[in-house]
Amino acid sequence: MANSDYAETGQGSFTAMVILDAPLGRFDTIINYTRFNFPSLDAIEVDMAVMVNGEIMSVTDVGLLSITVDRGCADTIPAEHPANSLAWIFDAGTVGTDEVERAATEEVSVKVTPYTTSAAVPLDAAPPHLIEFNWRFNRPYPPGRFQINGERWTVAATVDIDTPALHLSWAHRDRVLQADHLVGHDAASVGPEPGTTYSVSVVHPVSGDVVRTEVGIVGAEFYYRRAQALHDLGQLTSSQMPTILFTSMREGFEAWQTYEADFILAPGSIETPPLMGFAQRVIESPYAINVARNVMNYAGNYAVAMGARPVDRMADLYQLVGNGVQLQDGAHFTPWVTLDFRMPELETTINIRTSSLYNGVSLAAAKAGDLVLIDDELVQIETVSPTQIVVRRGCCDTVPRVHIAGARAWLIGVTYSFDAIERTDGEPVQYKLRPVSYGSPYSLDDLPSNNVTFGRRAELPYAPGRVVVNGRPWFEEAQAVSGASTLFSWARRNRVAQGSGIVAHEDEDKGAEAGQVTRLRFYYETPAQTEGGAPVEHVLRQEDIASPTGNANPLAGMTFAYTYAMAQADGLAAGNALGICGTVVIYCRMLSARDGLESLQSYITPIRVPSFPC
User: Fold this and answer.
1) How far apart are alpha carbons 131 and 134 in whole angstroms?
2) What is the four-CA torsion angle of 355, 358, 361, 364, rounded to 10 degrees?
3) What's the DSSP call for residue 345?
4) Hey, how many other C-beta atoms are within 10 angstroms of the C-beta on 41?
5) Which of 264, 328, 423, 612 lies 20 to 30 Å (CA to CA) from residue 76?
6) What CATH number is attached to the domain comprising 239?
């Protein structure tokens, strides 16, 4: 960079500086010096910052040719510094700045040209300083008071049969709450800053490869267990010490500095960790997933499974086992979130209460277009962040449903396991998800069962979408009014034409499969005949709306008028059966039908109709 490219952009005061007389150990708190350069006699005061190489400290006491400091302040951790290192002592009034905000990844070359009694130092005599900006201001502070098995991280801990884990502990830090206050490494917890989690990585001492990374750690402690270490690292000699890397993370940013700690892994056998149950789900595969998997028969009966990594993090994979299928290589755990609030039928924002990140399964792979399974509804991601997921409702062969707070949403679009064996209609299959242990396999007898009875799900027509009754959402109660009809309207869905493409409830009409009709079934309910059973539906009338060929009417096959005469007849029948006079509530179930098959899910609208006079 030529001198002509530089421009004067700012100025500042001189900063006090001392030169270390002796090496400064990582946890030493007294800086002794005999060489110094002070712009004034009172250049050093308590609470000023000290910077030695890349570490920031805080002045706690000023002596004669000595400074007492707190170590590892702000976004730095304690380090060792050789003799003759420069120690800069400063506060806001003793530094210079050009007050220009820089963009991340920007590179800036800076020259400092102090004034002498005659003039400024010439540009060509001032050395350049290249600064590379890398989001330092945004990064979370690293934690403080980091220890392993009760000792400072610089002491190599041993993992053996008597000490079966590395117990990592730390104190939180909060860059926003701390503001301009310098908190030392050994101080108690502050914060943490909202959204902060911690990450642990393990590096093999011979290959240099990272053999394990655990993310999403919350709290102020973590155990890296012997079974995991033996699995990750194999048998090592006492001189081969693996390394633990420990840092904080927030919104995709890692802390500016990272702890590195070596440890000793004593050789031994791998013991199978105690079995711990984990959340899991197995469902019959929808047509769209079959097409995406490119199976031999898209309309065949297959199954998909989702497993949540156990909270003890003692398994990295699982096997799907069941009647002729076993994934020998193991499957990856499916990311998940839980809903922070109740989610009505047409709500599109999932506020995240908890997530699989806290079990070490990141949401980072989730992207727009991915499917998510909430209860029995498939939704599609539009945007995703650490705190919210915005979705499109009622996708593929499902319709929007109400979901309670705390419901688990599986990010099935990221990963799942697939039983590629085609099953027969009505075949019951018992599936088990077996965590891949570090020792001998878990016994299938000790694992919970997931029972699936196949029902030709991938062959069923898709339910309609955009269902509206009298201009209102389908789930609101409609009122039959004398002299007027109750108008139902919808958009058709075409399972085959859509293929693996994802169509949501609110999307426009997609046409219908050949022979497909929209079925409106009007009925009333009586209580279940068995405890815990479903109410009994008594059909009053059924209307099948076909899609006329070549009809110029754009609404043909997508509307139905439920006349007041129909409402009177149905209300009288329901009222007499239920013994309710005046008005009575009946229901309309809207679905699709084709070749004797009905859609997997349907829309239900309550309708208040006239009954016999009271």
Assistant:
1) 10
2) 70
3) T
4) 6
5) 264
6) 2.60.40.10
pLDDT digits (tens, 9 = 90+) for 422-462: 999 999 999 999 999 888 888 899 899 999 999 999 999 99
Please state, in angstroms and rounded to a whole number, the distance separating the CA atoms of residues 291 and 265.
48
Provide the whole-model pTM. 0.86
For residues 248 and 196, the answer to whether their CB atoms sit within 8 Å is: yes
Would the pLDDT of 417 be above 90? yes
Q: How confident is the model at residue 272 (pLDDT cuts 50, 70, 90)?
A: confident
Are 197 and 357 a contacting pair, CB within 8 Å?
yes
Region for 99 from its dihedrals, namely left if φ exceeds 0, alpha if ψ lies in -120 to 50, beta otherwise? left
Average pLDDT of the chain is: 92
Residue 394 region, left (φ>0) first, then alpha (ψ -120 to 50), else beta? left
User: Based on the domain organization, do 444 and 501 belong to the same domain?
Assistant: no
- pLDDT grade for 125, boundaries at 50, 70 and 90: low
Query: What's the rounded Cα separation, in Å, for the pair 368 and 334?
Result: 17
Contact in structure between 557 and 550 (CB atoms under 8 Å): no
The verdict on 70 and 176 lying in the same domain is no
Look at residues 100, 133, 157 and tell me which one is the last residue of a structural domain: 100
Coil, strand or helix: which one is 250?
A: strand
Could you give the CA distance from residue 357 to residue 373 in angstroms, rounded to a whole number?
17
Q: Determine the pLDDT at residue 106.
A: 84
Q: Does residue 326 sit within a domain?
A: yes
Structure token pair of residue 372: 């998510």
For residues 10 and 95, the answer to whether their CB atoms sit within 8 Å is: no
Strand partners, 610: 583
The C-alpha atoms of residue 241 and residue 155 are separated, in whole angstroms, by: 12
Compute the distance between CA of residue 588 and CA of residue 260 in angstroms, rounded to an integer: 65
Q: Do 306 and 395 share a structural domain? A: yes
User: Does 152 share its domain with 290?
Assistant: no
Range of the domain at 42: 3-100
* β-strands 157-159, 259-265 pairing: parallel
Q: Provide, rounded to the nearest whole percent, the portion of the chain with pLDDT above 90.
A: 79
Residues 6 or more apart whose CB falls under 8 angstroms from that of 97 comprise 10, 12
| Low-confidence winner among 429-438, 472-481, 553-562 (lowest mean pLDDT) | 553-562
DSSP 52-99: ETTEEEEEEEEETTEEEEE-S-TT-----B-TT-EEEEE-GGG-EE--
- Is 118 part of any domain? no
Does residue 511 form part of some domain? Answer: yes
| Co-location of 353 and 446 in the same domain | yes
Residue 12, pLDDT score: 66
Beta-bridge partners for 526: 536
Domain count, the chain: 4
- For the cut 70, the answer to whether the pLDDT of residue 324 exceeds it is yes
Residue 176's φ and ψ, nearest 5 degrees, are: -75, -45
Residue ending a domain, choose from 459, 479, 509: 459
89 Cβ contact list (under 8 Å, min separation 6): 15, 16, 17, 18, 43, 44, 48, 49, 50, 59, 67
Question: By C-alpha distance, which of 114, 98, 116 is closest to 15?
Answer: 114
- pLDDT, residue 3, reads 61
- Is the same domain home to 215 and 322? no
